[in-house]
Design goal:
By secondary structure, this protein is of the alpha+beta class. It has one domain: 2-Layer Sandwich (Herpes Virus-1). It has a 5-stranded antiparallel β-sheet.
Length: 93
């Protein structure tokens, strides 16, 4: 029996053809304050790219908390996955 990943409607309805990508490889909020980040995530509702939870400021998670934009994708090169903060679910695409 294989491992089945839990998913949600947000990720089931995610269309790889319409995924928002930001070509600038930087956290929009860390740039303002001169801070550093570890990895980047792009919000699929508004398109902003922010730092992950391994980064000191956790801007992507804070963006979800403040704006309720549930889905982010990895903005890292060669990574093709999405995360839903609301349902704590993951999907490769």
């Amino acid at each position: 029996m294989g491992f089945k990943t839990k998913t949600c409607n947000h990720l089931e309805n995610l269309d790889p053809q319409n995924i928002k990508k930001d070509d600038s490889y930087e956290c929009a909020e860390c740039i303002k304050t001169g801070d550093n980040w570890v990895h980047l995530r792009t919000c699929q509702q508004c398109g902003v790219t922010l730092c992950c939870d391994s980064s000191p400021n956790k801007h992507a998670s804070n963006h979800y908390i403040n704006h309720k934009h549930s889905v982010v994708i990895s903005a890292e090169p060669n990574e093709k996955w999405a995360w839903c903060y609301e349902h704590k679910t993951f999907k490769k695409y």
